[in-house]
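User: Structure with pyridoxal-5'-phosphate, tokens only please.
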Amino acid sequence: MMLEKIHGGVVMALLYYLDGEILEEEPKVSAQDRGYNFGDGVYEVIRSYRGKLFALEDHVERLFRSASYIDLKLPYSPDEMSKLITDFYNKSGNPEAAVYLQITRGAAVRNHTYERGMKPVVFMYSKPLDDKPLSYYEGGFKAITVHDGRWDMCQAKTICLLYNILAKQKAKDAGCDEAIFVRDNGEVTECGSSNLFIIKDGILKTHPADNRILSGITRKYVIEVARKNGVHFRNEIFYKEDLFTADEVFMTGTLSEISPFVEIDGKTVGNGKPGEITLKLLHSFYEMVRSV
Ligand SMILES: Cc1ncc(COP(=O)(O)O)c(C=O)c1O
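Assistant:
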């Protein structure tokens, strides 16, 4: 088994799924898989809390949207896909887990163009997680800004992540947790693997969900939580200079939940600690996802 650990006294391990088979050992796919050769596929990462998958329907809906952007016909209906993921996850027995789901166009002798009748390859794993305490998020995170030179289909969650990988590695090498993407015109879009929000004068803003960002599931729920908490919200483009005059800045993602930034490009955000509104949203979101 790839990974084992003690979780509440029980030995937990990664469990795998490949094309109808559930396996304890890591499965192998064809070296001619188009995911391997071209990054030709889509994916999702779904978090479970207390033994239940969070926002599964949203993830499945986005998976189908992503597939249609890349002209990939999935071999299941959305309901069948949800059932497949749930059945697999339930077998893994991991109460706190990250379920990774990847569907590539299939395997064929390498050629840029593809046949529409190809058999997609469906791969999943369920990885046990340690549920992080609130204090982990409250500690604050650091980011650097990087140029956003990605393509104009960022709304599709594809496995072509090289630009994001390089950006995140640059952040890691700089001792930071995340890379914030800034376009040529100074527009801030999102992060390497998360969405970005700023708060200025009590107004919460994030980039509109267009083709320049991945419309995060966490982003959607954070906006709902903000509305419930009476926080003024705007889908609005903002610029690099706004990062340094913002009162509060945070990222959101399935695994990062709400993670406040306390430093960007070596400059302190706000007073150097997670701000009041961020903490309110963080606490509210943290409780909501765990109250299943
Ligand atoms: C580029 C990018 N933006 C945003 C997100 C956040 O999306 P979600 O909240 O659905 O995890 C991700 C997650 O992987 C991402 O890769």
